[in-house]
Design brief:
Blueprint: E1 7-10, H1 16-27, E2 31-36, H2 40-52, E3 58-61, H3 67-79, E4 86-89, H4 104-122, H5 126-132, E5 135-140, H6 144-147, H7 153-173, E6 178-185, H8 191-194, H9 198-206, H10 216-226, E7 238-241
Helix pairs in contact: 1-10, 3-4, 4-7
Length: 248
C-alpha cells in the first residue's frame, strides 16, 4: 500500500481499456483523473453512471493531439489542487487503410492522437514527478506496434514510436524516482473489436493461442501493478499481454 494517496491521470479514460484502468486505480485507493474528448452532456452522464457504481472520477476535456490544449489542461488540474503522480497515455484512434489508399489526413490523425499526445501530455507533467522524486508513466501501445498489421501502417508506426519514447525517457528520469514503461495489449473484448464482422472476429480469435479475446480488466490489473511501488525496478520495458498471439 502506498504511504499516501497518489493521483493518476488516464487519457482516453471514458470507455474501453481506459475505463478499466481508471477503475483498477480507484480500487487501489488512487485518486483518478480522466481525460475525454466528449461533449459535456455525455461526459457528465458517464461520470454519473460511474458514481452509481461506486467510482468517483474527475474529468478534464482536452484534445490530446494539440499541445496547447494539453498545456491548458495541466494548468487547470494544477489550479484544482492536483499533482499527477501516475500518467497513463491511453488515448488512441484508428483510421485503417492499406498504404495505397491511406490519405495524408488519416495518417496525420492517427500519429497526432496516438503518438504526439504522449509528448503533449507528458511534457507538462514530468517535471512535477521528478521534483517530487516519484512517478509512473505508462504508455499503452499495441501488439500491432510490435508485429505490424495489414492496413495499419499509421497505427503500427505510432504504437511502435510510443515505445521508442518510453525507452529514451526512461533513461532520462530513472535516477529521479520515475519509471516509464509500455504495455502492449493484444485484441481485447472492447466495443472497437467486438463490433467487427462476425467472420473477421472469428479469424482474430482463431489466431490467439488461448482461444479468446483479452479482457480490459486483465490489462488494467497489469497497469495497476506497474504503477505500484512493487514495480519500482521495472523501467524502459515493453510488457506484452496478448494471449500468446505474438511471442518474441
Amino acid at each position: 500500500m502506498m504511504p499516501e494517496q497518489k493521483t493518476a491521470l488516464v487519457t482516453g479514460g471514458m470507455g474501453g481499456l481506459g475505463e478499466a484502468i481508471a477503475r483498477a486505480f480507484h480500487d487501489a485507493g488512487i485518486r483518478v483523473l480522466v481525460t475525454h474528448a466528449r461533449d459535456e452532456g455525455p461526459a457528465k452522464e458517464w461520470l454519473a453512471a460511474e458514481r452509481d457504481k461506486g467510482y468517483g472520477f474527475t474529468s478534464y476535456d482536452v484534445n490530446v493531439a494539440d499541445f496547447k490544449s494539453c498545456q491548458r489542461m495541466a494548468e487547470r488540474l494544477h489550479a484544482d489542487g492536483h499533482q499527477v503522480d501516475i500518467l497513463v497515455n491511453n488515448a488512441g484512434v484508428t483510421r485503417d487503410a492499406t498504404l495505397g489508399k491511406l490519405d495524408k489526413e488519416n495518417w496525420d490523425a492517427v500519429l497526432r492522437v496516438n503518438l504526439d499526445s504522449v509528448f503533449n501530455v507528458t511534457k507538462h507533467l514530468i517535471d512535477g514527478m521528478t521534483d517530487r522524486g516519484w512517478g509512473r508513466i505508462i504508455n499503452i501501445a499495441s501488439i500491432n506496434g510490435i508485429k505490424g498489421q495489414f492496413g495499419q501502417t499509421n497505427y503500427s508506426a505510432a504504437k511502435a514510436g510510443m515505445h521508442g519514447f518510453t525507452k529514451a525517457l526512461a533513461q532520462e528520469v530513472a535516477k529521479k524516482g520515475v519509471t516509464v514503461n509500455t504495455v502492449s495489449p493484444g485484441y481485447l473484448a472492447t466495443t472497437m473489436v467486438t463490433v467487427v464482422p462476425e467472420d473477421t472476429l472469428a479469424r482474430i480469435v482463431a489466431g490467439i493461442p488461448v482461444g479468446r479475446l483479452g479482457q480490459p480488466d486483465e490489462i488494467a490489473a497489469l497497469v495497476a501493478f506497474i504503477a505500484s511501488d512493487a514495480a519500482a525496478f521495472m523501467t524502459g520495458s515493453n510488457i506484452s499481454m496478448n494471449g500468446g498471439q505474438h511471442m518474441y
